[in-house]
Write a structure and sequence with these properties.
Layout: H1 3-13, H2 19-28, H3 37-46, H4 56-76, E1 79-82, E2 100-105, E3 115-119, H5 126-141, E4 145-148, H6 154-163, E5 168-172, H7 186-194, E6 198-201, H8 211-223, E7 227-230, H9 239-248, E8 253-256, H10 257-262, H11 264-273, E9 278-280, H12 282-289
Parallel strand pairs: 3-4, 3-7, 4-5, 5-6, 7-8, 8-9
Antiparallel strand pairs: 1-2, 2-6
Helix pairs in contact: 1-4, 5-6, 8-9
Length: 292
């Protein structure tokens, strides 16, 4: 997609009251010229997605914000891609997927057949951390890509497990790429890029992390993965969001008996929600990677 269309979509995303979900409805109608802000806005009005055309002042403000974001991207080497681009990751082309993504590194990682999410508690015990680390290590050794969220705890263990054998790993962020969250993992973020991996966000570069953005990030982790490997997590853990999205997308969920036995509360919650998961031996999970 050319710069004109990217700029138009970026401007649309900055118009109050529109947002990703509503803009996707406009784009999915197939009757818009994505290079024209006016055409997109006209279509949004025709579809009843917005009640009235925004004022010229509102559009101008959105255009200025889009221009600032584009300048930030150019200055820091951040790349953007639209869901209308033929190179957009196919795993993110679904109803609740992003309109735009910002990324650093090799976005083609997501097109590999063996993308596996490794997730779990931010405060795991030694067993939980070791399982996440070893699972990601085996994913890398089997030619796969570990997908996670750069959080402390199991996410960090997963990323580091992949990096330990020079594997590729992808981190989806709940913040902009110039505002790495958590800040303690900035070094890890650079290591991911140095290893040929990728950092991805659907938020403009300086966006701060907020609670709802963690949930939105979790849906992309699930969508980007062919299967989910979960370590320990509590009954009220954010990990549950990823597992719910995985279940809705029919992504298989795996863990090992030692994790379930050592930290049963999260898995009891999965049972109560009717979310299916398979308990395997570690080697059985490793063997599954060869069939992805």
């Amino acid at each position: 997609m050319d710069d004109c269309a990217i700029n138009s979509l970026l401007t649309m995303m900055e118009i109050p009251g529109l947002g990703r979900k509503r803009l996707k409805k406009v784009l999915n109608s197939g009757q818009e010229n994505a290079e024209s802000i006016n055409n997109l806005l006209d279509r949004a009005c025709e579809m009843g997605i917005i009640k009235a055309m925004p004022s010229e002042q509102t559009v101008k403000k959105a255009e200025d914000l889009a221009s600032t974001i584009a300048s930030q991207n150019a200055r820091y080497g951040i790349k953007m891609m639209s869901c209308l681009n033929h190179n957009f990751p196919k795993c993110l082309l679904y109803e609740d997927g992003p309109v735009l993504i910002y990324y650093l590194g090799d976005i083609s990682c997501l097109d590999l057949k063996k993308c596996v999410a490794v997730i779990g508690s931010r405060d795991p015990d030694q067993l939980g951390s070791r399982f996440a680390y070893n699972a990601a290590k085996e994913i890398a050794l089997n030619g796969g890509v570990t997908v996670s969220g750069l959080a402390i705890g199991c996410d960090t263990a997963g990323h580091r497990g992949a990096l330990s054998v020079k594997g590729k790993t992808v981190a989806f962020l709940p913040s902009g790429l110039l505002n790495i969250y958590p800040s303690v993992n900035q070094t890890l973020a650079h290591e991911i890029l140095d290893s040929g991996g990728c950092l991805i966000s659907e938020y403009s570069p300086k966006t701060e992390a907020h609670a709802y953005r963690f949930v939105e990030r979790d849906r992309l982790q699930a969508a980007a993965s062919q299967m989910i490997v979960t370590s320990s997590f509590a009954h009220n853990s954010g990990t549950l969001h990823t597992l719910k999205f995985a279940d809705a997308l029919s992504r298989p969920i795996y863990t090992i008996e030692e994790i379930v036995r050592g930290n049963p509360t999260g898995f009891r919650t999965l049972n109560s929600l009717g979310i299916a998961y398979s308990v395997k031996k570690f080697q059985e999970i490793v063997d599954l990677l060869t069939h992805l």
